[in-house]
Amino acid sequence: MTDASLPSADEAAFIAAARADDTARFALMTERHRRELQVHCYRMLANYEDAQDLTQETFLRAWNKRASFQGHAALRTWLYRIATNACLDFLKKRNDRTPVPTEVADVGSEVLYLQPYPDRMLPEDPQESVVTRETIELAFIVAVQRLPPRQRAVFILRDVLGWPAALAADALELTVASVTSALQRARVTMREQLPDRRLDWRRPAPDELSDDERAVVRSYVDAHERNDLDGLMSLLRDDLRFVMLPEAGTSVITAKDAVDGWVSGGLFQRGYDDWRGVTTMVNRMPAAALYRRTPDDPEYRLFTIAVLHIVDGKIAELTGFDAAGKPWLDLPPTL
């Protein structure tokens, strides 16, 4: 990401729109950046609905600050700067978003505000690594939440978006030395949180599902529809990590514990034995949307969405989310 010394045609047009108080033209030029800014806010906040709100806040702040834009930086860079600081201001006000110390954090268990990100809302023409699969997957988003907010911002700007240290320092009103130090600390935490993952976020990664992933998610749906507990168990790695959000205290780290919990909760027993499912994708990950029909209801109603991380044909991580009342997932409420 580089900034020209003179305004480009886009920046010049934006300056003209700002000076003329041309709200329609201003909105048109900023709107084209909505999806990538929303992904940026999501990485900062791990919550789709908050990311929507903060993206809108970014556009409001941009309008209010329009006179300050002189074209010395690219419009995109300017908007990212505003979005980053809007997220930092949001985090300052939210006591429930304080990072859990890494030494006591269990994967997914404390990030109760985590929400899945629908693939249909990802940018269609991503620049650089804005939506590289490995930087939008749930494990990455959870790991980023372990970082203090300003350290988090530095890490995303530097290692995900590839900003030079001087540009990140200017955006955050820090010294280059402070940015470098924060990035070093952030990288240590990310290595601790994602020990088995590739940590070179700037290198392109495949964004399409593998044949194995597609087969496993279909089998996961099929096992529910057939009430096949053994078949479901066979899809799980012994060291499965499972969490159900936004419920507290549901994190487990073995397949046996997960299945025992599902059975004790009524899975495949009366009221939880009539399922339909559809395969989908969120966070560029395979997912199954499960619909349940109770004995007194003629329709299958959207119940949960299970997001799967699949390794060597087995489910290594399963993150379940309450899917009801979330139209932004773009799933039909009934089948």
UniProtKB/TrEMBL annotation:
Q: List residues of the RNA polymerase sigma factor 70 region 4 type domain.
A: 140-189
- Note the PROSITE patterns from the entry: SIGMA70_ECF (PS01063)
- In this chain the RNA polymerase sigma-70 region domain maps to 31-95
The terms under GO molecular function for this entry are: DNA binding; sigma factor activity
Q: What's one GO BP annotation on this UniProt entry?
A: DNA-templated transcription initiation
Q: Which UniProt keywords apply?
A: DNA-binding, Sigma factor, Transcription, Transcription regulation
The superkingdom listed in its UniProt entry is Bacteria
Transmembrane helix found in the keyword field: no
Q: Which Gene3D superfamilies match?
A: 1.10.1740.10, 3.10.450.50, Winged helix-like DNA-binding domain superfamily/Winged helix DNA-binding domain
Q: In which family does this protein belong, per the annotation?
A: Belongs to the sigma-70 factor family. ECF subfamily.
Q: How does it assemble?
A: Interacts transiently with the RNA polymerase catalytic core formed by RpoA, RpoB, RpoC and RpoZ (2 alpha, 1 beta, 1 beta' and 1 omega subunit) to form the RNA polymerase holoenzyme that can initiate transcription.
Q: This chain belongs to which protein, by name?
A: RNA polymerase sigma factor
Q: Which organism is it from?
A: Micromonospora violae
